Amino acid sequence: MPDDIEKDARKRADEQAEARDEAEVEENLKEESDSGFSLSDDERRDVEERSAPRAALLHEIIRRAGQEELKRNIATLAWSAFAAGLTMGFSFLARGVLHRHMDGLPGAFLVDSMGYTFGFLAVIVARQQLFTENVLTAVLPLMTKPSAHNFGRLLRLWSVVLAGNLVGASVFAFGLLHMQQFDATGQAAFVAVGRELMDNSALEMFTKGILAGWIIAMMVWMMAATERSRVAIILICTYVIAIGGFTHIVVGSAEAMYMVFAGESSFADAVLRFGLPTLAGNVVGGSLIFALISHAQVRSGGE
Q1: How distant, in Å, are the alpha carbons of 41, 91, 227, 229, 301 from that of 48?
Q2: What is the pTM of this model?
Q3: How far apart are CA 110 and CA 115, in angstroms?
Q4: Cα–Cα distance measured from residue 219 to residue 198, given in angstroms and rounded to the nearest whole number
Q5: Most exposed among 85, 99, 179, 289, judged by the fewest C-beta atoms under 10 Å?
Q6: Count of CA atoms in the C-beta half-sphere (13 A) of 125
């Protein structure tokens, strides 16, 4: 009889302990959900997986990518940048081809602007060196640890990538004009696209370049947040640049140099009215505005 009583007492104690454990787990789940609702372990994992990453995480992803870019040797950077310049020429080509076939039709501009996205998509997915993309990724390591060494590495990266991009875009433009791949109507369409660019004043090139640089920086930031929607992000962001008439130093170089080779513009015009103002605008938009604000947001501790 005493043994039975002792067994019953132990059983009740075990049940009470189990009940306390369950209540404690339930309370912890409520606290962790911040909503008063209890969540299972699987449900909490689902919440964590579906939650947007913090800005600090995105900053670190991009900073590390920039750190790796800064370490690459000059030859590798130069060839990748040259390839990117050639590839970006296809944004000009695709837009010109669409312009030729859509000319005079309602909504033609909105359709031919879709061609502008092609070169960006190819370059970014292929991981080639694009200057405006590096404006954000390469500047974050410098903002995180300002030093003469990091500044020197940044200038080295920017100068090599920019030179490679511009040479590649210029070679593409020369080939597009002289390799007789398109008839006179097609060449006229390319001139029309180039003329849209060169009709801007130097100030307009600069201010529109700010917006283009800003959008590219936002694109890089958004791509760091997701793997599933990268193509859509690239297409949407670059399409906005196209329909907004914003100026991009690499694609615009293919257009401006085509106009030079075709005798429609002077080289001085391409450099002084397009090149330098657009380059300055892209750097200001991508580096001095977006990157600086994003870095300050993370360093402030608010995220």
Answers
A1: 11, 39, 16, 19, 21
A2: 0.79
A3: 10
A4: 26
A5: 179
A6: 15
